[in-house]
């Protein structure tokens, strides 16, 4: 009985953790332009672009580097 409860608790903890093991950091994406732009484009096509840690980091690195397409200046 104790083994079953322990196994269930361990399984629940693993499922609730939900970490993204393959995620690269914002700093890594800032240092690797090609990988950043490829990941940024792939994430833009997703229904939830900021749904994974890796996509959030790629998007944040893109905006921090200023390599996104800026809006034209308004002449008002």
What features would you highlight for this structure?
76 residues; 4 helices; mainly alpha; 0% strand; elongated; 62% helix
How would you characterize this protein structure?
The chain is mainly α and 76 residues long. The chain has 4 helices and no strands. It has helices spanning 2-17, 26-31, 33-44, 53-65. Helix 3 (33-44) crosses helix 4. The protein is elongated and about 70 Å long. The mean pLDDT is 80.
Brief characterization of the structure:
This protein has 76 residues and is an all-alpha fold. It contains 4 helices and no strands. Helix 3 crosses helix 4.
What's the arrangement of secondary structure elements?
Elements: H1 2-17, H2 26-31, H3 33-44, H4 53-65
Helix pairs in contact: 3-4
